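Cross-check.
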Amino acid sequence: MRRVWSVAHNTFIEAIRDRVLYSLLLFAGLMILSSLVVGTLSAEQYGKIVKDIGLTAISVIGIMISIFLGMGLVYKEIEKKTVYNIFSKPIRRHEFILGKYFGLSFTLLVNTVAMAAVLLVLVFYTESVYGGVIQYYYGGSHYAEFFTAIYFEFLEFLILISIALLFSTFTTPVMTVLLSFFVFAIGRFSTDFKLIADGIKAPIASFVTKAVYVVIPHLDSLNVRSEAVYGGEIGLRQIAFTSAYVILYCAALIYLSIIVFNRREFK
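Predicted model, tokenized:
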């Protein structure tokens, strides 16, 4: 386990030093702060705009970091031939994969907490200035739903990291980005995909479509931004079930990544 954390630590340090990461975080900060400006256009919409734009910014930036940093998790080591130095040490391939995943996951955790902290300050500010208006239009602050929305966004990042990691074990960074965004797009509309599958009457086509629905990540279930703004019940059972689903899904993809990586030959 110590070797896994060693790889994870090095991955985290490399990610933090990446200029792309800082540019994305800067963009996220600008998007979140812009919500203050846009919100002044309509007092009754202030609370909605600040939360909605802020949560969307965290989601967009987290998705981009997950995919664009995830695309080179394995390929970069192979391309630079540093993989030979790594495996000349007493480290196994599955430990390398696990370390890469945990390292980037911790990077996303730190970034998500940082962006959420900035957004939370803005939310507290809007509460202090427009508390009465927000109470009247939205029935309260809905902080529990707000933190749950951020937590669910982080769970989505974990899935995207595992997807990018899997693709990076056998294809180029460009293809990893394209395939990851493709899976992400389908996952965001998985409910609609199921409705299409249920409407297909041809047995073989229906079976294939339903099989694809089972395989793709159900990312639409992780979007609870409307509940964070307007309020809505997000029970502990839903949180627990969603968390378990994400853990199992990520574990399955990491396991596939290990299998694929173990079969690769380095020349």
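The first helix runs from residue 2 to 17. The chain is about 80% helix and 0% strand. Passed to J.P. for a second look.
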